[in-house]
TrEMBL record:
Keywords: ATP-binding, Coiled coil, Kinase, Nucleotide-binding, Phosphoprotein, Transferase, Two-component regulatory system. Residues 135-187 form the PAC domain. It comes from Azospira oryzae (strain ATCC BAA-33 / DSM 13638 / PS). Its EC number is 2.7.13.3. PROSITE patterns: HIS_KIN, PAC, PAS. This is histidine kinase. NCBIfam families: sensory_box (TIGR00229). InterPro entries: HATPase_C_sf, HATPase_dom, His_kinase_dom, HisK_dim/P_dom, HisK_dim/P_sf, PAS, PAS-assoc_C, PAS-like_dom_sf. SUPFAM superfamilies: ATPase domain of HSP90 chaperone/DNA topoisomerase II/histidine kinase (SSF55874), Homodimeric domain of signal transducing histidine kinase (SSF47384), PYP-like sensor domain (PAS domain) (SSF55785). Residues 175-202 form a coiled coil. It is an enzyme of class 2 (transferase). One of its GO terms (molecular function) is ATP binding.
Amino acid sequence: MTAKRPARPLLDGSLLPEPAQLLEGVNEKVWIEVIQKMDEVYNDLLQYEVALEQNNAALEESHRFIASILASMSDILVVCDRHGAIEEVNPAFQRYTGRDEPTLKGTSIFDLFADDKARDKARSFFASHSHDGAQDVELPLQAEDGGAVPVSFNWTPRLSGTGKLIGMVVTGRPVGELRRAYRELRQTHEDLKRTQQQLLHSEKMASLGRLVAGVAHELNNPISFVLGNVLALKRYAGRLETYLEAVHNRGCDCIPELEELRSELRIDRILEDMSPLIDGMIEGAERTRDIVDGLKRFSALDREAAERFNLAEVVQRAVRWVAKSAPPSFTVRTELPAELPLRGSPGQLQQVVMNLVQNALQATAAQPGGELLISGELGDRELRLIFHDNGPGIPDEALGHLFDPFFTTKPVGEGTGLGLSISYGIVERHGGRIVASNHPEGGAVFRLTLPRDLPAA
Ligand SMILES: Nc1ncnc2c1ncn2[C@@H]1O[C@H](COP(=O)(O)OP(=O)(O)O)[C@@H](O)[C@H]1O
Ligand SMILES: [Mg+2]
């Protein structure tokens, strides 16, 4: 026997009827209505489910879309909370750090930098730019192999709907690649500039060569006959002097008109002056002839037949020649391979070496111990001679003009400014090049490169 439950009162004071009481009097019609209602509810449920599935599919689609974008990003992307704990990363970041997504999630972003300095810097950026973000902050990220990858980071704050800071979105681009590309670009640019300068220089030298060749050709004949004539004049003057002296000694004072004319025309002064005047003319004419010779050599007016020879021997000979007239305080050291095979004119190459040794001697003349080191190298296709002295070096403003004809910083009589331009012409005709520079530790450096004579195959 079950105890009878007391009836429960409803809000309006009436009592809740018992279930048996409720079902009393429910007829078939009511049942049908209930079943119809249930049908409707079921239909509604079905529709909701279809809509839900459609929404789910759309959601999945957009999820896939976002994931594909994140996957194809070459830049790295990290989303973290406001303490720096990682919430989301893209595959690029996983690749650079060498860690997978589950390991990275929850890790502090600061633990992923390469060293303490970078970690501190990242923390301070995170703290001080949590509201405005920061751009192009370069920090090293620890790479998979334990090394460091320099990355340029951008920090952007992530805010909630109410504007509260909930974290940071960090994007970054590894700059190693960029740097390498930039370095390569700069190198190419430098090479291009150098080639352009060389081109300009050879063009300038070529047109100078043509001009100088014309001038030398025009001057050659007149100066030859000036010199020839003045030498003849010197001989004639000597004879005239002897004759006049004889006349005077024979006592031409007996003819007063002649005596008068002698003093009026200052014949004795003239006889005294004549010899130094003619000597001056000869000296001037000879200097001019030497210059014209130099110009002819610069512009290759006189070519010699090419022969095979050892440049090392030529260098030693040139050094001996210059050393003859050099003070003992000037020393030349040579470090040369025994053989420097070359094809061309040994005489002209000797002149080049003599010019360079002479210049080193003059550049170091004012100091107590002048030194020149000539070193040689024999490469597969080229041979090189390097002249390094311990003089004052070449002023920057002179470097661009050194090989111009008549460029000199020496007083008149000491330098014609032709030595290096002649050398340039000779070296160029041998298919080589000559470059001047200053040594970082002082002194001038002249680098001569010539194509070596290769034995016929
Ligand atoms: N070894 C060197 N050290 C410093 N300056 C030099 C050296 N060699 C050449 N020069 C500079 O180059 C100029 C031109 O040289 P060069 O053509 O031989 O003419 P020159 O010797 O007659 O002056 C020199 O006047 C000098 O200013
Ligand atoms: Mg000289």
